[in-house]
Structure formats: C-alpha cells, structure tokens
Write the structure tokens for this entry.
Amino acid sequence: MLAQMMPGTEELLQKEMVTAYLGTDPTADSLHIGHLCGIMMLRHLQRCGHKPIILVGGATGMIGDPSGKSQERNLLNDETLRHNQECIKRQVARFLDFDGTGPNAAEMVNNYDWMKNFTFLDFAREVGKHITVNYMMAKDSVQQRLNGTARDGLSFTEFTYQLLQGYDFLYLYRHKGCKLQLGGNDQWGNMTTGTELIRRTLGNEAESYALTCPLITKADGKKFGKTESGNIWLDPKRTTPYKFYQFWLNVSDDDAERYIKIFTSLDREVIEALAEEHRQDPGRRVLQKRLAEEVTVMVHSREALDMAIEASNILFGKSTRESLLKLDEQTLLDIFEGVPRFDITADQLGRPAVELFTQAAPVFASKGEMRKLVQGGGVSLNKEKLGAFDRPVTADDLIDCKYLLLQRGKKNYYLITVK
C-alpha cells in the first residue's frame, strides 16, 4: 500500500502516537471505491494506535485540484458542499472510530471552517511569501497542465491549489499536532508543498512528513474505481449492494490477489492461504468470493451481503418468488440489466398469458410454441412455474406494482414493464 514516504516517517510512527490526515474533496455526496485505499490507510493507522483525521475540502473543493486532471473542475456552492460533507462522514464512520474515548479517536474537519474568513491579503502575507513561484512551477501537476496536455492551460485559481493544501497541513500542525499527511501518489507534489511550508514558516525543528499509496489500477492498466457505466459508489442509492458485490466477484485473478491485500483487514496468513487455495482450483474463485464478501460487509453490512448473494441466486441459481419480492426496484433492474425487455400498458392486464406473451410482449413466436413449453414445465412467471398457458395475468402478479419476470427454460429471462 506504500508508494512514497519522506525519510523519517517510519521512525516517527514507531516512536509516538502520530496524528495523520487524509484529504478528500466533497465533489459528490458519496465516496467511490477509488477512495478506498486512502480510507484503508487511515483504518490501519488507527488500529495501530495512531490518530486519523479525515479532512473534507469544503474550501479547496470550491476550486479544484489540477493533479491528474486535464480540465478545470466545476465549482460547487456552499450548500452542496455541506450536504456532501455530511454524507461522506456517515460513510467514513463505517471504517473509523469517531466515538472512542481514547486519544486516537478519529476526527473529521472541514478546511472551509478556517479558510472562510481568510482574506486574500492575509493569504498572500502568511502563505504566499514562504513559497516561491519557481518551487510551485516545478511540480509535475503544474508542468503537465502547462506543457500542452490540457486544452485550457492552468488557471491562477488552480495554480494556488497547492498553497491552499499546504496551508491545511500547516493549520492542522499548529492546531491538532498533525505531523503526517496521507494521500494518493498523484498528491505527492501538493503534500510536499505542505511540509515545505511548515518548515519555512515554523523552522527546521518543525517535523512533518508525507506518505502516499499507489494509484490503484486494474491488471489492464486502467484506473481503478471506474466501469464502463461509471463509478462504483459506496452509497447504496448510487450503486446497489448487489452491483457492488458483483464488481468484486468479477475481478480478474491477478486483481483479486492484489485487492484482497489492500481492501480488507485480513491478515497475511489468511490471505496467503486463500491465494494458495485459489491457485489449486481457480474455477472456484475462492479469492474473489472472499474479497467480495469482506468488502461488501465492511462498506454496507452483513445483511446487505446476504441480500446481494440472494439476489445473485435469483439469476444464477435456485430462488423463489419470495426472494424476488424482497428486492428493491433498483436491485431488480441491476440483476436483469441486459435481458430482453418489453413494455405493455396496464389495460392489457387480465388477458391470458398465452396472448400476453405472444402478442403484447412477444417472448414466444406463436401460441403453439408457448403452449408446448408451458406443458413441459419450461416457463416460469416471477420464479413460479406457469401451470396453465391460458391463465390470466393480473395486477396481483406485478413486482413493485410494475414488473413481470418471465423465464423461458433455465437461462432465458425477459423483463416486462407495465406502463
């Protein structure tokens, strides 16, 4: 989980209880799995007796960080930022202990609280005079934006971002005794600006350090946390626990062996045993199953995991109508994403199944074909065998008052929506 760290960091962590912080911009009302590596670093830190601080960048989030970006971010208003902060705190509380009585209880801070009354003149005098433009220009994040990789160059607003992040570290050093900043490896330039600002402001005896985790990528080199349809979010309203569970279940063997070391709290012996078991019989996907189980419970709950497994069984195994009725609408749509779909109108309910599923929703090519399959026990409606091909399909059959799930054979599903 380590990419870079400043000399002396390891010795500091062995010597005393260290207060360390990780920053995140509240640009959405949920974190996604790309944030998990940093959160796991804080989790390990607290478990080892150190004090974690999660900094929500209410002020810096209004500006946008140029690191790793080719375009400037849209600016967010105060109301949106505050809402996002509260949502993020609820999520992080699943990983860190904010309520403990010990000296290493986790804290959440918002840099808007100390930046909102900080005037430009104050900033120029207290921060700007300590860091030269030459120093700032040398940062990779700045050079990449200036040397043609971005269409729009680099705004002054973004250019000052490293000073704002550096001031956060200085403020936390002064007011919280914070000596260590954690972050992704793309933040190294901003983080070292912070340590430099502390040294130049408070003198060489003021010790401060930076430690980064690698940017997690998949085996194909693509950035972790993204799928073709977007992010895998921690918020169950944005990404259902079923879809979250399926993401981890479907990672490659190589990725599973890397991710289980980073995104779970399993110890080395357990992970090595799982990896060996997986190598003996890769088809059983032991690593992926354990990874999916651990991360889903950690981010959501044991109940959410059970529901995700039950939802998986609806598509891939045996399940009942009761299992189907327990699903929320979004999980139902996630499970049957990509299956053929038909729309019918409410006034078509009450018609015999053989008419409905050959005419209104033409799952079968003819009434004769459907009649034959029903008589052979090969057709199910909402996970129950259709006993009679001509039985009426009514509003009582609807799932969530709007869906019908028709199954033809073992593997062919059709989702019918009543408009």
